[in-house]
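Q: I have two molecules that I believe assemble together. Could you output structure tokens for the complex as a whole instead of separate predictions?
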Amino acid sequence: MVTLTVNGKRHQIDAAPATPLLYVLRNDLKLNAAKFGCGLGQCGACTVLLDKEPVYACLTPISVLEGRNVTTLEGLGTPDNPGPVQRAFIAEQAAQCGYCIPGMVMRAQALIDHKPRASESEIRDYMAPNLCRCGTQIRILRAIRRALSETHTAEVVR
Amino acid sequence: MTRDAVQQTNKQPEIPFPLNIRLAAAGWKLLFLRRGPVAPDPAQSDAWNRGRYLAEGLGHCGACHTPRNALGAEKTSEAFNGGVSEDWHAPALNETSRAAAPWTAETAYQYLRNGFDAYHGHASGPMAPVAENLAKVPEADVRAIAIYIASLSGTDDAAKAQRADTALKAAREKTLKVESLAASTTGSGGNTATTDGATIFAGACATCHRSGGQAPRARPVDLSLSDSVNAPDAGNLLHIILSGIHPQANERGFIMPGFSAALTDAQIVALVAYVRGHFSDKPQWTGVDTRLAQARKNNGS
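A: Yes, here they are, computed for all two components at once.
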């Protein structure tokens, strides 16, 4: 038994300790946002946040997660009440097939948390591990810039 | 002008005493600078002499692979005994080499030219840009350097190639098979579940690093052959676990993801102990936790 904390909820998981987090998220917890792309840590479709840092869920065994917080796309908002990064992706219609987008949103969230004033080259460097094969990069970058600037506006209002 | 002028105070030089005294360089040169050409060795082939000229001169391999004295000069009496570069261990290239498979001219050529050979793995850390540059120079020059480098660790004959092949074969047998992997996923090894190195290896590493590494486009080395796993210092393995292996920006190349965010310090220490214990016949490293703190500081992760 491994205890996982996902999006603030604790779960007892009955699986082998070396099982990748991605399988538990999708098969046991029915959190299907994170996608299986390559299974080798090369594409980023499975990106989730572990204690606010982006990690590949496909290469993270559940044994290492005791006492740590996992955040998936489902933890950022709901279809009725999307979070700021999700709203920016919707506003820019930043999806083609959509398979890479949950991972993109998670890495973008980490970028905004760590570097709210990221420059264009910093955005591109930070997002480099996540691949999109439809060619949506331009819209994804636009969505991230929008989310960043809305974060600044929110800071000023506050 | 489309931009307003800005006030910018120039940074003061940060070169510490006594390095900030230019004249000190004259004294250093008097002590350590060797002038003039190196006479060719008539007993060796033209290619070997060309290789030595390139490796000792423009290539300055010893700048990293030879230890330095207190004044920062290469210790010529310990040439190619192994040194340090940017917090990475630069392995010994002479007969003290710890490479599980001895360097032959052919494997050294593959490694230097392509940044990878199956007997030694990937050129990583500060060696990665070296291989990237050697991919662009004349092939004969890289072959010459390889001939010279291979000769440093003993005559490059059929017996040496045989030893390399034996090491490769042994390493392939030691690489985890899928069956033994299944056994390790139950979490054994005497550690608590969260820091069991074998379990972490099975979940985080084995997807690529098993059965000779069949993962497409990942092409990992058999870990028993990896210099980082056999090295006298855990630093290189720690750097690779933390940051992975990546091609230079906009270049083709192989990717290993880094695990600096996924694994805690205790988990990395456990993983390193498992990898060293399973894949190397060298004794366990000591002080891996301290070395890890240093590696994290030096690569900003």
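A: One point stands out. The first helix of chain B runs from residue 22 to 32.
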